[in-house]
């Protein structure tokens, strides 16, 4: 198929025109013929079944299809405007067809006592059935139309309905685009792959996705198009990784020297787990090569990622380089600084903190010491990205919770040395394997999948509001044992729309139930000044306050081993991964820790699944898989971060097997022909290059 025909603007398609084109562009992002062909149905209806009116019952929840005649038309006045009502009969009974808009056009085009096939959702009011805004065509039209037994149903919305762009309209447009393009869609896969996987040819796949000739052909068309979509995503990510390893030079850290060895043998605060040792080895092998390392380090809360990150920094120091760690918030940066400085002081490594709160005089000294190499490790927030921050010799950049940083921001780290530094991305947000493959498929992945010995699993309990006194009694018992408590709220100020506990109201209630001076309370939320926030946090860290009332600003990074209880108010307001992250703030010490989920009495089915999952398991990867099934990939990571998750037909939850197959086949193809130079791969290469151009200039930034 000639590419330029598929690129024809949608307004030139017969039956569309300028006005409809405006709606299609705005509501469905359909700009060209190609966009229309790639606008897929979300379900299919069996149009071989015709109901009789006397067979209808209020239990029918799906759309139905009937054959009959309109015998009367009337206009009924309402408080606002009017509605057009037609009496429809099929000989067994009567029902009403109702239109709230477009009366004039409908009246002019309806014919009394003519046989129609009507289709739509039925309503039942006082025993009388009605169908608002039905799709209609004469029996003759119905027989002629290019429709199979399985009728496609396309995504729609109110704006489309208002502009009379119905499912039938979309179907007619689809018929027309197939006529104008002559069904000639260029095959992209080599014949060997098509034969091996028994893929339906591209022409047949497109036709059967919109006008399936049978259920079997529909299934094969869906498989083919899903595989193709996922294959090209994986091809992009994998080739990016291979190009990086072959073309983007890094610094080779061949020496494992005094810094690393003295810390490992003499100052390690606890033995490393086998998982930590395995990950360290993977990092060491990566950094010993001249290719730039780009590795994602996943580990559940408390798995010991920071010590692995610190020891990776020591490898950079042993080879004459500096290292830095960038965190998304000042609280988290301070936490990393405190932990790493304590370890670094033992081996005379100079660690400095740089955040937005750093005073100008101190900042200027940091800039000077960085450039002359006096500072070994710099820890901070976005402040590290400023142009003024220049290193003498940056060799390793660690980015914590990288999905909170934009690609453009992360790219600035590459420019801090003549060759880009090695990059280690750390996340305490367990990412489901399929999502990791599609979001971070261009990175090498390491997973710390075991907790340090001696950690007791956190006990998670779910209580309804009616049990609050019991929970308050439990808190007092824990404080009496010398423990500290977190209480987290989803909202800062009262919302008229949401009847949930909010932080300020909660603070007042808790202050009454836990009176000063017997109980001392800290409060932290995102609208406080950094200085006040840090001061309150510091009081809690030092054990000067018993209870920390907070919003989710404490979600990542706060490490208070003495805090043994996490109370999450209105837990139904939080996503599953966020609940798991909050739970990870406790369980840092040797004592038994608890997470208490407080909810209202009425819970949705999804909320029940979330609460049950939290109470059943502490495994972050299991939690993340459940969360992916409940919310989908876009909600978990934010599709704007990935640049690759704007999937048109594939589903990362339902199509995991197809994704794995697509990745395997993309790996095999690149191993055989990394530059796609073979004659049989030219069509693939053409599509691949178009996709590569669409990618932004940060194509090789992790």
TrEMBL record:
Cited InterPro entries: ATP-dep_DNA_helicase_RecG, DEAD/DEAH_box_helicase_dom, Helicase_ATP-bd, Helicase_C-like, NA-bd_OB-fold, P-loop_NTPase, RecG/Mfd, RecG_dom3_C
| Catalysed reaction, written as an equation | Couples ATP hydrolysis with the unwinding of duplex DNA by translocating in the 3'-5' direction; ATP + H2O = ADP + phosphate + H(+)
Q: Short name of one Pfam family for this protein?
A: RecG_dom3_C
Q: Which terms under GO biological process does the entry name?
A: DNA recombination; DNA repair
Q: Look up keyword Transport and say if it applies.
A: no
What does the record give under GO molecular function? 3'-5' DNA helicase activity; ATP binding; ATP hydrolysis activity; DNA binding
Per the database record, which ranges form the Helicase C-terminal domain? 467-634
Q: What does this protein do?
A: Plays a critical role in recombination and DNA repair. Helps process Holliday junction intermediates to mature products by catalyzing branch migration. Has replication fork regression activity, unwinds stalled or blocked replication forks to make a HJ that can be resolved. Has a DNA unwinding activity characteristic of a DNA helicase with 3'-5' polarity.
What family does this chain come from, according to its entry? Belongs to the helicase family. RecG subfamily.
Task: Identify this protein by name.
Answer: ATP-dependent DNA helicase RecG
Organism equals: Paenimyroides baculatum
